[in-house]
Amino acid sequence: MKNTLFLRGFLFCLLASFGTLSSQNTTNSSKEVKILLKKKRSYNKTVGYGYSIQIYYGNERSAKSKHARFKVLYPRVSTKLVYNNPEWKVQVGNYKTKLEADRANLIFKKEFSGTIVIPMGK
User: Fold this and answer.
1) 13-63 pLDDT, tens digit each
2) Could you tell me if 90 and 60 are in contact, meaning their C-beta atoms sit under 8 angstroms apart?
3) Containing H/E element for 106?
4) Distance separating alpha carbons of residues 67 and 61, to the nearest angstrom
5) What is the pLDDT of residue 40?
6) How far is the C-alpha of 25 from the C-alpha of 121, rounded, in Å?
7) Can you say how many angstroms the Cα of residue 108 is from the centroid of all Cα atoms in its chain?
8) Sequence spans of domains, the chain
9) Which residues fall within 8 angstroms of residue 114, CB to CB, at 6 or more apart?
């Protein structure tokens, strides 16, 4: 008796889950969603997304010096030297989440004081 009751309950749950699984596949196939995804991807390529770490903000000579020093210490991390009149910025890394950027920032703070995490494109 217990076995048949258990089997019926199990079959009912199994059949109910098949209905919900098949209904979720139609959301990404609409034309409007595909157009929006394409626009979002092109926007991310031009503007950028995620977070970066700014290790310096100041004059040109110091910025280039910090940029070169960072490249020697961390050769696998991407770096960017940005001129924003009248100051220069040294931005490093490309992180998807703020948590990843904060973890890397803890490492970089040992060598460079005054580092901050900033959103990409700033």
Assistant:
1) 666 666 555 555 555 668 888 888 888 777 776 666 789 999 999 999 999
2) no
3) helix 98-108
4) 10
5) 79
6) 34
7) 18
8) 47-119
9) 55, 56
Residues in the chain: 122
Q: In angstroms, what CA-CA distances link 40 with 28, 36, 37, 113?
A: 14, 6, 5, 35
For residue 28, give the DSSP letter. G
| Torsion angle defined by CA atoms of residues 34, 36, 38 and 44, in that order, rounded to the nearest 10 degrees | -150
Q: Which two tokens stand for residue 26?
A: 């139609």
In the block, residue with structure tokens 């901050």: 116
CA-to-CA distance for 116 and 75, rounded, in angstroms? 20
Q: Which two tokens stand for residue 58?
A: 């100041």
Rounded-to-integer distance, Cα 80 and Cα 87, Å: 14
What number is the average pLDDT over the span 88-93?
96
CATH code of the domain occupying 47-119? 3.30.70.1070
Cβ pair 37, 27 in contact under 8 A = no
Least Cα distance to 92 among 107, 58, 84, 43 occurs for 107
Phi/psi at 94 (nearest 5 deg)?
-145, 100
Looking at the DSSP assignment, which residues form a beta bridge with residue 82?
Answer: 89
